[in-house]
Amino acid sequence: MAEQLNNIRIILINTTHPGNIGSVARAMKVMGLSQLHLVSPLRFPAAEATALASGADDLLQDAVVHESLDKALDGVGLVLGTSARLRTLSLPQMDVRAAAEQSVAESSKHPVAILFGRERHGLTNDEIQRCHFLLNIPANPEYSSLNLAQAVQVLSYELRVAALGEAGLIQESLDYTPVDAGQMEMFFTHLEQTLLDTRFLNPAQPKMLMARLRRLYARARPDQNEINILRGILAASQKACDPGFIKPVAEAGDD
Fold first, then answer.
1. CATH 2.60.34.10 corresponds to the domain 181-240
2. What are the distances in angstroms from CA 102 to CA 135, 151, 233?
3. What are the φ/ψ torsions at residue 88 (nearest 5 degrees)?
4. Of the candidates 184, 246, 253, 239, the residue with the CA atom closest to the CA atom of residue 214
5. CA dihedral defined by 86, 91, 96, 97, rounded to 10 degrees?
6. Residue 111 CB: number of other CB atoms within 10 A?
7. What's CA 25's distance to the chain center, in Å?
8. Cβ–Cβ < 8 Å for 13, 69
9. The CATH homologous superfamily of the domain defined by 2-165
10. Under DSSP, is residue 142 helix (H, G, I), strand (E, B) or coil?
11. For 28-84, what is each residue's pLDDT tens digit?
């Protein structure tokens, strides 16, 4: 169980109040989680964080602070994002129990990351697009306000329950290894440039094209061979639209 939970990262993005970081560390340690990652916190380390950690000081000492989300997602194979509001372009959604089961099922194969956004505004649309799924805590619709540490506590509990038994898991384990978040970002950069080179994407009116393509490929979750094929197709497309590229002439007798 410990090995599974130790491969699950709780990532807090731009946390404003250091006390919330301490409370999150306490919530995590109670349930056996240890991988706390912070992306550009407003203040850390801080006395408020230590005070509210209540004995989880080791998680604060071992917390990894990153300047960007890219760094925090290095090597991650599954990214889940927490979001309490609907988006213009929605991703596949899971409730917190299904998200915990999915995370534990995949954590033996690759690191898993669960993103928590700012206290007031949550995750940005760009951050949401880095996720494979959104997770939702089914709270009272008439009063669904959870603070950051409470949300982490609910999820941490479900992760521990899933890791303890794995009974009731209905999703089959992956029989392949998806590429990590970094390779997916390189693919999306290559894809966007190819769409520009082929004039399929109008930079003056991009609309939602890249967001929709991100959702498509995030849902597919390609493995290394598949991403190599896709990158090869993109490279061939770029070469074909290069003015200097001359298509070979078919020899006599070719159909």
1. no
2. 11, 18, 31
3. -60, -40
4. 184
5. 140
6. 20
7. 20
8. yes
9. SPOUT methyltransferase, trefoil knot domain (3.40.1280.10)
10. coil
11. 999 999 999 999 999 999 999 999 999 999 999 999 999 999 999 999 999 999 987
